Amino acid sequence: MTTQVPEIRRDLEFLAPLLSGDTFRSLRDLQRHALLVKLIRSSLVPLVHNRPHIDHWNLSEREELARVATLLRTELSRTSAGEGVLSRADIAFLNIAVDPSVDSASLLRAAEKRKHYFSLQALLPARLRYLLHREAPVRFAASSLLARY
To answer: What is the pLDDT of residues 92-114, one digit of tens each?
Structure first.
């Protein structure tokens, strides 16, 4: 058993080839959007949760996180719904993740706030018109809750 946390580059080495590949490019807008939202929620955010100590976040790791977060954010902006369906907590997290000059304690706090699934910041999308979108936080939370019971 190892307790060493792998470099972010190793954890997410699949991402750049995936996003530049023909399969991703051939997806319809809605499919690309759904995949990008899931990558943010299931890969990027847990990456920070799995590195909960300040000493996990040296400058090179923050820069790599910023590179990956920027890549996902850029691709998301190319879809019709963009960041609109992400929760306000997701947006606050992304704003910090893309900027390596923001202190690591703020990054960890933003990731932690994102885990408060039933807070208004976690349930409300960045744009209210996406409140009932298939990737919206309310629907995501409801399906997660139903899956538990």
So the answer is: 999 999 999 999 999 999 999 88
